Amino acid sequence: MDTALFLGFATAYALLLVWGIALVARRRRRRTSDLALLVLSALVYDNAVIGLGAWIGEGTGLEALNAVRYWLHAFVTPLLVLVAWSFLARAGVRWAKTVWARVIAVVITGALIVYEVIVGAASAQLVARQEYGTLSYSNENAPGGPPLMVLVVAAALLVAGIWVWKRQGWPWLCVVTVVMVIGSAVPFDIASGAVTNAFELVLLIGVLATIAFQDRRAG
Asked: How far apart are CA 58 and CA 176, in angstroms?
């Protein structure tokens, strides 16, 4: 069951990526929020590797493919902080347009990348794991407790979502961020390891929709 779900997620993220590229092509200029396309690319890879793992089979090849997943997670996912800052600036939030706001967003993003590399990718001890029909490699050295990077990214997107709602009348970034946070925190008694990925997909749909909305507002 989960094999089909993860491959379905990979396909959905690929379609979102195509949409995002089309938005950039139509606009004919790049925005900082377009860094979301790198996040989508990483999620296409992440879900495809998990979905194809059982067919690839256990071994050094699949282990290496999974190691790349952790490095992509460390370097790419924190970029959503910069995406959140871009949403604020494009919404006309005065303090977000200052040099200091931009510097703080870059510093937070860099700090999260360094943190994820140190506690995640660089120190990962990968062990094969079979779950609900999928085969992947999990990190046995993963730190316990709530994931710091995910919490910071969610907080940044929530702040951006509230301000975009207030300044531009667009509630959906705020809504999908809240849905993702609640969905990731609530345990579901479902025979699947892919449930939380559905909430990530909802979040990224909201992010791309917000980019499209702000593009339309800009004319």
From this structure: 36
Helix axes 99-116, 148-168, angle to 10 degrees: 150
> What is the span of the domain harbouring residue 32?
2-218
Tell me the CATH number at 197. 1.20.1070
In a 13 Å sphere around the CA of 201, the CA atoms on its Cβ side amount to 20
DSSP bridge partners of 139: 126
The C-alpha angle 74, 147, 153, rounded to 5 degrees, equals: 65
Terminus-to-terminus CA distance in the chain, angstroms? 44
Q: Share the mean pLDDT of the chain.
A: 92
With cut-offs at 50, 70 and 90, classify the pLDDT of residue 22: very high
Percent of the chain with pLDDT over 70: 96
Q: Give the pairing type, strands 126-131 and 134-139.
A: antiparallel
What secondary structure does DSSP assign to 185-196, as a single string?
Answer: HS----S-S-HH
Q: What is the pLDDT of residues 100-124, one digit of tens each?
A: 999 999 999 999 999 999 998 888 8
**Confidence band, pLDDT 50/70/90 cuts, at residue 133:** confident
User: Phi/psi of residue 129, each to 5°?
Assistant: -140, 125
Of the candidates 154, 76, 65, 155, the one whose C-alpha atom is nearest the C-alpha of residue 113 is 76
Our count of domains for the chain comes to 1
CA torsion sign for 56, 200, 120, 146 is negative
Token pair, residue 173, equals 């970034």
By the 8 A CB rule, do 209 and 168 touch?
no
- Which pLDDT belongs to residue 86? 97
